[in-house]
């Protein structure tokens, strides 16, 4: 019996798992969700770790920087690797190897050893690039912004759930008779096992493209690589496009801030509002929970406005979201009354997530033949932003509140830079400003998802 052939999906049918696109959609966001448990599982438990290992503010800052710095290079590498061997194998390898430092961080008995394990765990952050790459090759231009934003948003939701669940896992081990020192170490075994489980799921339940796996396609069509673009040259083509670096900067101002907040939120509420670990974790988790809808909303807004204003509309909506994010962070940093602080956090969280979605709704339209490279560079920008923010929180003479206010100013400035750097490239006439990189695709055959 001839195997069914599929094309890129033009719609998101949440309850349909019969097509490769929708299987990839659900497995990708779920895998990314679990990755957050590995990447930030230790963050809500840092108050306990700080006490046991006698960590200073500067050392905690170094740990925050380590958790996101290696991800810069990992994202650049996996973006290229997706172009080379496909997202399925790339994700499987990353999950299997990433589980090791997650489970082994419990062997840390000093600042130095903890720092090294935290650095190694940061590789898991590259999961985002694979997630975006996989949905980008599975969905058609008319829906790709929404698909990218939804899978990334639901995956990022793991950052919020982690803040809530890990303190409960810790409390369960304490309730079972383990000491606090033993409990935080044992707690990290749980997300490590989750990563190993998803490695098997990803390998056996997904495929690289709607047509099949890259390795299989090359057996029947040796020229398939040429059709997909030159993996070696794609990175340098992406590097030469200034729009990629503008998005690099923009993503640093939104996702970079998101993972920074994921790292420090629990400590921020513990130190500034005298809360316990479980209470601080619950409140910090609300920040991540906005991903349930907000990142997808950013992608949806981008797709909608592009129908009238093309690429220019996508850039404008991104600039607006970034500006509102920056203003919201500045407001949050001034709040001293807990209910107001929570409300302000949820307000700026909305625009952080929407900015994330709007950024990656632009990515597929920069250079479709270097999609993995563009995704990797822009994704790395998020971590560069987090590293720079980490240096603020590392400084002994800069409080977390002051650091957040400075970050808010930087994000607002980035909003204007994004608009000024990208808008002049495109014609202001909506009729002439269709998505430039995908003109040949839009002019080609229909990409309705169907079986033959």
UniProtKB/TrEMBL annotation:
Gene3D superfamilies: MFS general substrate transporter like domains. It holds the Pfam family MFS_1. Its main location: membrane. Residues 24-427 form the Major facilitator superfamily (MFS) profile domain. The chain crosses the membrane at residues 27-48, 60-82, 89-108, 114-133, 154-178, 184-205, 244-270, 282-301, 313-332, 338-363, 370-393, 405-426. PANTHER family: HIGH-AFFINITY NITRATE TRANSPORTER 2.3 (PTHR23515). SUPFAM superfamilies: MFS general substrate transporter. It is a multi-pass membrane protein. This is Nitrate/nitrite transporter. It is found in: Cell membrane; Membrane. Keywords: Cell membrane, Membrane, Nitrate assimilation, Transmembrane, Transmembrane helix, Transport. InterPro entries: MFS, MFS_dom, MFS_trans_sf, NO3_transporter, NO3_transporter_NarK/NarU-like. The keyword rRNA-binding does not apply. Belongs to the major facilitator superfamily. Nitrate/nitrite porter (TC 2.A.1.8) family.
